[in-house]
Amino acid sequence: MEVILKQDVPNLGHKDDVVSVKDGYARNYLIPKGLASNATASVKKMHAELLSQRAHKEEKIKQEALEISNKMSTIHLTLGAKTSTKGKIFGSVNTIQIAEALKQQGFDIDRKNITIKEEMIKEVGSYTATVKLHKEVYVEIPFEIIAE
Which of 17, 45, 63 is a domain's end point? Predict the structure, then answer.
């Protein structure tokens, strides 16, 4: 029996995949749990149309993310931090400060989409952060920590 998965099912497939399973598995587990629906000819046509529309929307979102990444690739952030006389930072610099600095530059990025290669930034210097704009679009942003 062919079914269309509504969710990711481990060891079977991902959402929107058309998979062939045994009748009992589909009727007794997948369909009652809401993990899949029966793949008749009309449902397959609607599913194909839905996937093509979704692909078009996804491509548009990806293009917007690429445009933003082109704009973001030109910026260089400078963050101030309170430091000791030896250049050690009191506390550490994290993604929250980088997100605030990006917001001041005109980019509203969630801090959860920003990663810093170094685990803890505790000294003055130059570093890079990676910003995830889309599941396939990343941009590297250089930033510098200076003493206030």
Answer: 63
Q: Are 95 and 111 in contact (CB under 8 A)?
A: yes
| Domain co-membership, 31 together with 86 | no
DSSP per-residue string spanning 42-67: HHHHHHHHHHHHHHHHHHHHHHHHHH
pLDDT tens digits, one per residue of 86-139 = 878 888 888 899 999 999 988 899 999 999 988 778 888 899 999 998 888 899
CATH at residue 127: 3.10.430.100
The tokens describing 140, both together, are: 């590297």
What torsion, rounded to 10 degrees, do the Cα atoms 127, 72, 99, 131 define? -70
Residue-wise pLDDT for 19-73, tens only, equals 999 999 999 999 999 999 999 999 999 999 998 998 899 899 999 999 999 988 8
CA distances, 54 to each of 4, 24, 72 (Å): 16, 31, 27
Supply the DSSP string of 100-120, one letter for each residue.
Answer: HHHHHHT----GGGEEESSS-
Number of domains in the chain: 2
Say whether both 76 and 143 belong to one domain. Answer: yes
Residue 10's domain comprises: 2-63
The structure's pTM equals 0.66
